[in-house]
Design a protein that fits this description.
The protein is α+β, with helices and mostly antiparallel strands. It has 4 helices and 3 strands, in the order H-H-E-E-H-E-H. The protein has a 3-stranded antiparallel sheet with strand order 1-2-3, covered by helices on one side.
C-alpha cells in the first residue's frame, strides 16, 4: 500500500453538503424577495379597496382584508386618519426578525368633490 499525499476522504461529502446549503440559502432568499414584492403589491391594492369603501360609506378595514386573498388577517394592519387609509402587510418569513423589517405599506387617499363636502 502506498501512503496518500493528503487525506481527502470525505471531501466530496463536505462539498455536497456545502453546495446543498448554498442552494437552500439562495432559495430562501428568493422566496423572501418574492414574498416582500407580493406584500408591496397587495398593500397598495388593499389600500385602494379600503379608500373606495370609505367613499361609498362602508368600513375600510373589512374591505382591505377582503381585497387581499389568502393573506392572514393577523399580518394586515389598517389605519384610517381623516381621508387617508394606510394598509401595512407583513410578508411571511422563515426568519422571524425579518418579517417586521420587510413590511410593505400602501396608502390611499380620498378626495371628495366640493359638492359632496358641502352636503
Amino acid at each position: 500500500m502506498r501512503p496518500s499525499a493528503g487525506r481527502r476522504e470525505g471531501q466530496a461529502s463536505v462539498e455536497a453538503v456545502g453546495g446543498a446549503l448554498a442552494v437552500l440559502l439562495a432559495g430562501l432568499l428568493g422566496f423572501q424577495l418574492l414574498a416582500a414584492g407580493y406584500a408591496a403589491v397587495m398593500a397598495d391594492h388593499a389600500a385602494e379597496a379600503a379608500a373606495l369603501a370609505l367613499v361609498n360609506g362602508r368600513a375600510a378595514a373589512p374591505a382591505a382584508h377582503a381585497a387581499v386573498p389568502g393573506w392572514p388577517s393577523s399580518a394586515t394592519r389598517v389605519r384610517v386618519r381623516g381621508e387617508t387609509v394606510r394598509v401595512t402587510l407583513f410578508p411571511p418569513s422563515p426568519v422571524p426578525f425579518l418579517r417586521g423589517r420587510l413590511a410593505a405599506t400602501g396608502e390611499g387617499t380620498i378626495h371628495l368633490p366640493a359638492e359632496a363636502e358641502r352636503s
